[in-house]
Structures are given as structure tokens and as C-alpha cells.
Design goal:
Layout (H helix, E strand, L loop, with lengths): L3 H49 L3 E15 L7 E12 L2 E5 L14 H15 L3 E5 L7 E2 L6 H30 L10
Antiparallel strand pairs: 1-2, 1-4, 2-3, 4-5
Helix pairs in contact: 1-3
């Protein structure tokens, strides 16, 4: 070990204490956002898709089908589908409103536009639309149970980058603290 090494470690420890909390406050939102994006936009939809594979298909009557276009302040156009349908399971009438696994408006591919136009066409002609119904809870239904790989991939990349950045910074802080860079609260 060279004689300069202990001095560098001491200098590093002296720089660490006050700024470590600011760095941690900076890293935590990135880690939380990444984990949140993963949970709500990747894990939850994949879980829904997996459990919907055992659902039964039944015909439904469309009461309304709307393709909505949204123009956010940042520019671009996003689309969402709003639908209302009636169906019968074992003699009991139900009403459903879920169009797809991902219910938020987006502009990833043409999925929303195609689904909206298809449903509007079926409504105009009066044809039944097939819906998927949970056999354990017939009040739970969906028109299109497909998983959207493009949207899942985008969410997976965003969540990974954000979470790994935040967690890597927090791990580096923890390692520095563990190795003797004891944090001192500002003003102490």
C-alpha cells in the first residue's frame, strides 16, 4: 500500500458526510420511479395477461365504443379506447368497460387506434363482440386480452435504467458508509 492511499481515503471520507444525504435524496426517487414503473407497467399487466389465459370467451353487445384522442401539452397525440358492453353468463346479465390490459392512453404503435376502430365498426353493424370473462368472477371481463410487447419493452427499459441508476447510487453510498465514511447530518 502506498503512503498516499490512507490520505486519499481520509480525504474521501471528509468529502462524503455532508453530501451523502443530498446524493441519497437524489437517488431514492430514481429507484422508486423505476420500481413503480416496473410494477405498474410491466409486472401487473403480465400478471393480468397470465391469469386471463384461463378466461372464457362470451359474446357481448356493445353499448358504446369511442376512440379518444388526447393532445398533451408536450405535443404529439395519444389515444385511448372507451367501451361499454353487456354480456350474459349463466343467465345473469353483466356490464363491462375494460377494453384492454393497458388502460391508459398512449401513442406506442397503433394498438389503441386499431382496437377503437374495430369496436366502433362492430357497434355500427350491431354485431356481437367477443369478450373474455373470468369464470371465478363473471363481473370481471375484457375485450382484448393481448399483451403489448412494444409497450412492455419500453416500460422495462425505462424502469430498468431508472431503478438501476438509483439503486447503484444507493449501493455506492451504503458501501462508502460501511467502509468508514460515516455520514454526519448537516449542521452537526
Amino acid at each position: 500500500m502506498s503512503p498516499a492511499s490512507p490520505r486519499r481515503a481520509t480525504q474521501r471520507r471528509e468529502k462524503l458526510p455532508g453530501g451523502i444525504w443530498v446524493l441519497a435524496l437524489f437517488a431514492v426517487p430514481f429507484a422508486a420511479a423505476g420500481i413503480g414503473i416496473f410494477w405498474f407497467m410491466v409486472a401487473s399487466p403480465v400478471f393480468d395477461w397470465a391469469r386471463m389465459q384461463t378466461w372464457n370467451q362470451v359474446p357481448a353487445v356493445l353499448e358504446s365504443a369511442t376512440l379518444q384522442s388526447h393532445h398533451p401539452s408536450k405535443g404529439g397525440t395519444t389515444h385511448s379506447v372507451s367501451v361499454r358492453y353487456r354480456y350474459v353468463v349463466e343467465g345473469v346479465a353483466y356490464t363491462g368497460q375494460r377494453a384492454a390490459i393497458h388502460e391508459r392512453a398512449d401513442n406506442i404503435g397503433s394498438f389503441q387506434e386499431e382496437l377503437g376502430r374495430r369496436l366502433q365498426g362492430l357497434q355500427r353493424t350491431g354485431k356481437a363482440v367477443p369478450v373474455w370473462v373470468n369464470p371465478r368472477n363473471p363481473a370481471e371481463s375484457i375485450v382484448d386480452r393481448r399483451l403489448r410487447p412494444g409497450l412492455i419493452t419500453l416500460a422495462l427499459v425505462l424502469s430498468s435504467v431508472s431503478a438501476w441508476f438509483g439503486l447503484a447510487v444507493l449501493a455506492k453510498i451504503a458501501r462508502a458508509v460501511w467502509n468508514g465514511g460515516t455520514p454526519v447530518l448537516p449542521g452537526s
